[in-house]
Amino acid sequence: MNLQRDPAPELVIEIDISHGSLDKLPVYAGLGVVEVWRYDGQRLRVYRLEDGPPGEAQASELLGGIDGEALNGLITAGQTLSRGEWLAMIRRIAVSR
Q1: For residue 9, which phi and psi values (nearest 5 degrees)?
Q2: What is the pTM of this model?
Q3: Biggest distance spanned by C-alpha atoms of the chain
Q4: What is the pLDDT of residue 16?
Q5: Which of 33, 44, 58, 69 could form a disulfide with 28, with the two C-beta atoms 3.0–4.6 Å apart?
Q6: 56: β partners
Q7: Rounded Cα gap, residues 19 and 32, in angstroms
Q8: What is the 3-state secondary structure (H, E, C) of the chain?
Q9: Is the dihedral of CA 67, 70, 76, 82 positive or negative?
């Protein structure tokens, strides 16, 4: 990755179900990543890396303020709904914001 040519992503998504991840938040912040989502198989947590030390946030600013609980609901629904039903659910949430 060449940060002179290619900017860092705004969002990083980590999925670590088998064991806890190393704390990479300071590394991501140093690269200029704005937000990290971490999913441990049970819960998705949103971390904001701008404006101070990295910390858990109530909502994703990159996704129009959708909160962690709603994101967790989407993950859970995605495991049981058909793809079409799941996409319709996402559209309903997007329209309501």
Answers
A1: -70, 155
A2: 0.78
A3: 43
A4: 85
A5: 33
A6: 47
A7: 26
A8: CCCCCCCCCCEEEEECCCCCCCCCHHHHHHHCCCEEEEECCCCEEEEECCCCCCEEECEECCCCCEEHHHHHHHHHHHCCCCHHHHHHHHHHHHHHC
A9: negative
Note the pLDDT tens digit of each residue in 43-97.
899 999 987 778 899 889 888 888 888 888 888 999 999 999 999 988 887 777 6
pLDDT (tens digit, 9 = 90+) per residue, 1-29? 676 788 888 999 998 887 766 788 988 99
Joined tokens for residue 94: 């997007």
Say if CB 92 and CB 70 are below 8 A apart.
Answer: no
Cα–Cα distance list, 18 to 15, 21, 25, 39, 41 (Å): 9, 9, 19, 11, 8
